[in-house]
Design a protein that fits this description.
The chain has eight helices and eight strands, in the order αααααααββββββββα. By secondary structure, the protein is an alpha+beta fold. The protein folds into three domains: 98 residues, Cytochrome Bc1 Complex, Chain D, domain 2; 102 residues, Sandwich (Immunoglobulin-like), CATH 2.60.40; 38 residues. The protein is extended, with a radius of gyration of 31 Å. 17% of the residues are buried. It binds heme C.
């Protein structure tokens, strides 16, 4: 009796948590300012077509064709059909946020596609909604040219100071509360330094730089700063600073490796290969020699 009661209690707990998980899976927690964001690109047949190309390559495997209900049903949660009512009732800002950040199985495309490309995919998704009327953003992406980014390093505190300003005709403005990300350029892609930060009142953000990051022979590290501003758009800035540990690593293509060219193959492969060839060659010579000996024995 007592045992049954416990089993009953546990089942209730499992049931309720599954129910909550399901609820969680249906709501996206989207900040108000992101929700209200609109595209600065007017959605046309052309942008929808460009968006379709991106969609086919990157989204269709999970979401299927919009309106066809053929998304990948084996995933949990099942990726929604993007022509469906739930998706189409969302704001453009919602969709932009979801495609940018992702969640669980739904990947983040923020560092995969430019803002322009993400809006084009949304243009494609909207092309399945006859009732949709676009609200255009007043933001002009050409304004990103006005943004000036300054990066400096303090060797005492190991802090990297990023200053974001815009040179308007009326004077210089500090861009506050902008999202800033800092990356160190590596062989394969980028390594994020610290976390995503926001600029303060003076347009400044401080990143904690690791003390043990390898640089090149001279200790130079290539840095990329990514700033995202609602009015000025997305700006990327690159700068080299002598702040890494000097490291003399030969480039990957100069090392002996299985994937490299013949002259750069690992020694053990060259040795094994050469001895196999030698062995077969010697064996052939031995056969020829035996044949010759046989022939000689026959004639005498
Ligand atoms: C690996 C599979 C996968 C890929 C690839 C993928 N998605 Fe998703 N997507 C999902 C899943 C799963 C969900 C549901 C996530 C949730 O609710 O937690 C989702 C949710 C969404 C939503 C929210 C739908 C709604 O209204 O609830 C949008 C919009 C979306 N994806 C767009 C895209 C776009 C655009 C691409 C391609 C650039 C893409 N997805 C690529 C799996 C994927």
């Amino acid at each position: 009796m007592h045992k049954k009661y416990i089993v009953f209690k546990i089942s209730i707990i499992i049931f309720v948590s599954l129910f909550c998980l399901q609820l969680y899976a249906q709501t996206w927690d989207i900040p108000a300012d992101k929700k209200a964001k609109n595209s600065y690109i007017p959605f046309t047949g052309v942008t929808a077509k460009e968006g379709e190309a991106i969609f086919t390559k990157n989204c269709m495997s999970c979401h299927g064709n919009p309106g066809k209900g053929n998304s990948l049903k084996t995933l949990k949660p099942v990726p929604p059909d993007l022509a469906g009512a739930i998706t189409q009732q969302r704001t453009d800002g919602d969709l932009f946020y979801i495609v940018s950040t992702g969640r669980a199985i739904m990947p983040s495309f923020k560092n995969v596609f430019s803002d322009d490309d993400r809006w084009k995919v949304i243009s494609y998704i909207r092309s399945f909604n006859k009732q949709y009327v676009q609200v255009l953003s007043k933001f002009d992406p050409r304004k990103s040219k006005l943004v000036k980014i300054n990066v400096s390093f303090d060797s005492q505190t190991y802090l990297i100071r990023v200053v974001v300003k815009a040179n308007e005709k009326t004077g210089t403005v500090s861009l506050k509360d902008d999202e800033v990300e800092l990356f160190a350029n590596r062989y394969f892609g980028r390594l994020q330094i610290d976390k995503s930060l926001h600029t303060n009142q003076d347009g400044v953000a401080f990143f904690q730089f690791p003390k043990d990051l390898p640089g090149d022979k001279a200790g130079i590290v290539g840095l990329t700063v990514k700033v995202s501003d609602d009015n000025y758009g997305e700006i990327e800035y690159q700068q080299k600073l002598n702040i890494g540990i000097p490291t003399d690593n030969p480039p990957l293509t100069q090392k002996r490796a299985i994937w490299n060219v013949v002259t750069k193959a690992p020694l053990w492969i060259i040795l094994t290969y050469t001895s196999c060839v030698l062995f077969v060659g010697l064996f052939l010579l031995y056969i020829l020699y035996s044949l010759w000996k046989l022939k000689k024995a026959g004639t005498t």
